[in-house]
Specification:
With 547 residues, this protein is mainly α. It is built from 20 helices and 10 strands.
Length: 547
Amino acid sequence: MKKFNINKIGVALLLALSLSACKKLDLAPENRFTDANYWTTTDKANNVLNTAYTQISNSGYFFSQEALSDNAYMGRGDAFNAASLAAGTYDASLGRFKSEWYDHYNGIKTCNIFLENVDRVTAMDAGLKARMKAEARFIRAWHYFLLETWWGDVPLIEKDLTIDEAKTISRTPKAQVVDFVLKELDAAAADLPVNTALADADRGRVTKGAAIALKARVLLYESRWADVVTECEKLIGKTDNGTYALFPSYEGLFLPQNEYNSEVMFDLQYLPPSVGSRSYTEFRDLAPLSVGGRLNAVAPTQELVDSYLMLNGKKPGDSGSGYDENNPYVDRDPRLTYTVVYHLYKWKKPDNSIQTIYTKPGSDPDQEHHFDEYAPGAITSPTGYYTRKYYDPTSTPADFGSGLNLILIRYADVLLMYAEAKMELGQLDAGVWDKTIKPIRARAGFTDAAALNFPAVGASELREIVRNERRSEFAMEGLRIFDIRRWKIADDVLNGWAHGAKFGPAGVDGGYIRANLRTFDASKNYLWPIPRDERAINPNLTQNPGW
């Protein structure tokens, strides 16, 4: 059960929704949202802050995000324009650019309104007010972080704008926006409580540890390795800024009974359909059809499956790995089974019974009652793979309606950010490995010493190992697209065919399904174009190179 109820937004949400009718950055709200007669009680101020929480992101972005990368393919439709973005078939008029730009600035607007007006609530406890301001500053920093990550230079707006002011704003240099985000996160961390100090009623709110972890992520994306180390060391093995640890079970990490566990640092809050209206049903278009899925919208790729190591720590193609092409999913990194559904997968139902999933065409022995989970051009998976991660066994059977929180930052990311920064500084040794990658692999289920111990390899191979560990650990969580962009390898991994299982024509790409042909132009695709409609309204918004 969620602890602070963002489902009950009340009057403030109705007002915010009236503002959201202003679909452009250049439009400002009517004065009634900021009238002094509204800002009279702590509850009303809290309603506005809760509105800001609902604007952090949404389940649609979360579940479609992986299809922007080489980890997955959106083969049915183009929800959130994930298929267009991955294929490189878009321009500045793409709806995703307009909607995401608007969503972030709408969230920033709510935070600005809150920060400008909360001091009008004179009867509020000073400590509570400071904490609530810190939460708003964190959320605003979150939005700016994503804006500058996608677009580079973006307008930096620190107050609620009038219509006239909005029509004259221009883009702020990315470096200045990043500096603002880092300073905001420092200021927020100073007034936020540690996770263990939160009352049960406030679980799910932003904490000091979340602010530090987000700052580390911002620095990671800027390749400021020494600074990443500094921030991560505030959290690893210390309790001053919160108490965190890897949850013992990788599978259990994503189950509803384990929400708010020791690894979760920041997540999107949802409510089960039986409790409130803030739930989601995206998983019905991720799950195999034979267990109730409607159609497949986002399918894991063969490239993702190939990235999972063997239990002895070797890659499937390495000499001595033990990889068997006829049994390709045997003796693999256990995270593969907890993330991806493959041929002959043992799907555990809510009643703990097991159903075998047949994805290879013609392999289901009971064709009368079942069907193949892959058929070219059908509503089944276009790659022969489905998603398991984030399946909620307590979801409503008809539509997979779920209130399971969606994790945005977890402690494993702190460990892997630290390992990557140390690697880039030439300081990743056995000591660092043993407190970062080793426990992550041990938690995943590796037991072979060759997989757990620090590898005696060169710098380039060590970099590959660290990067691949991120891929395996966070697959289908939406982080891969950001990693391949900041590593500047998107022009490599997003050019050419995305593949599926070995169910394709013999002699073509080794028999692996050709799922989607993609292009990525390094001269322009590392930044999104400024939305066409925004520039039509405000000519002061310059365009990114190549667009």
